[in-house]
Design brief:
Length: about 325
């Protein structure tokens, strides 16, 4: 019952968080210096055109009425319209979100597959493995994503000519081509995330391996492998899950740069295009989508941590 209460409380806590986030996103766009309508229209910004576009966007109303109308439309599934292509923003997001999900999902999966095993090995290995993993952590955290992406393109696309430098093919159209186009963007994002996960895993597992119950298990004759993977890694799970959840937000931010660099038609590139076109409805919905994804991932992370460590849910329930 405590687990269920914990989940319900976390879900209920997410609702006001989404509400506050929607206000922030709404105000950020409208508090940008300058007249957004005249910026959107450019050389076509006559008084008549400005007044008409203000009426179409609802900018002739008070901020309160604008927000109420906007949220009301969102709750009914109406995300607005792209003022450049006049396409419904819901359709644009439906086309772009799968690309962003694939990029962030594959990047995080690769980061976990690299970071967790190396972190466990660093916590239980000798001096040399510690030095090697420490070097990887320093390089992974220090190298910016855009710089790493350029190096990968120069090496694998320019010199070796093994992978395409940019572009995208849907997985359903050609799975192999999709993976070839996604390899460099995924590597660009995954290296830095793997470094953070490695560092956290190493510290968490090393801390667990120093506890008295590990000495007791060794005294009982339980194999070191079983102690590490059956007990130490499980106890270190909440710390690892926490950093993974946090790094999803970093991935979503990095996806904006990587999608633009590799010409991936995701939400991040949609936001950048909207900024360049002064297409504020697109920017607003794109930022809202990214922020909502991060909040939902944070909710799922809290639930997973509560499942891995029942003391968290017990404390929340009491």
């Amino acid at each position: 019952m405590s687990q269920l209460t914990f989940v319900v409380r976390r879900v209920l806590f997410t609702i006001p968080t989404l509400f506050v986030m929607s206000i922030v996103v709404f105000l950020i766009i409208r508090l940008v210096p300058g007249d957004p309508v005249r910026t959107m229209l450019g050389f076509r910004a006559t008084d008549e055109n400005v007044a008409e576009l203000r009426r179409q966007l609802g900018l002739d109303q008070s901020l309160f009425h604008q927000y109420v109308n906007w949220v009301g439309a969102l709750l009914h599934g109406d995300l607005g319209t792209d003022i450049v292509s006049h396409a419904p923003l819901a359709e644009l997001l439906a086309q772009r979100l799968p690309v962003t999900f694939e990029l962030t999902g594959l990047s995080m999966l690769l980061a976990v597959l690299i970071g967790v095993p190396l972190g466990v090995k660093a916590a239980t290995g000798g001096r040399w493995i510690n030095r090697l993993t420490e070097g990887f952590v320093v390089l992974g955290i220090s190298i910016p994503d855009f710089w790493l992406g350029i190096i990968l393109v120069l090496v694998f696309a320019g010199t070796l000519m093994l992978l395409p430098p940019s572009g995208y093919v849907p997985f359903g159209t050609d799975p192999l081509a999709n993976l070839r186009y996604m390899t460099l963007p995924v590597l660009t994002l995954a290296v830095g995330e793997a470094a953070y996960i490695l560092r956290t895993t190493r510290s968490a597992v090393a801390a667990v391996m120093g506890r008295p119950f590990v000495t007791f298990l060794r005294a009982k004759g339980i194999s070191e492998r079983r102690i590490v993977f059956g007990h130490a890694l499980r106890n270190a799970g909440p710390s690892i899950a926490t950093v993974i959840g946090i790094q999803v937000g970093v991935l979503l931010g990095g996806a904006i740069i990587v999608e633009t660099m590799f010409a991936l038609p995701g939400v991040g590139r949609l936001v950048v295009t909207g900024i360049n076109q002064r297409n504020y409805p697109v920017v607003q919905v794109g930022v809202l989508a990214i922020a909502t994804i991060f909040i939902v991932v944070s909710l799922l992370t809290d639930i997973i941590i509560g499942w891995l460590d029942p003391r968290v849910s017990d404390g929340e329930a009491t």
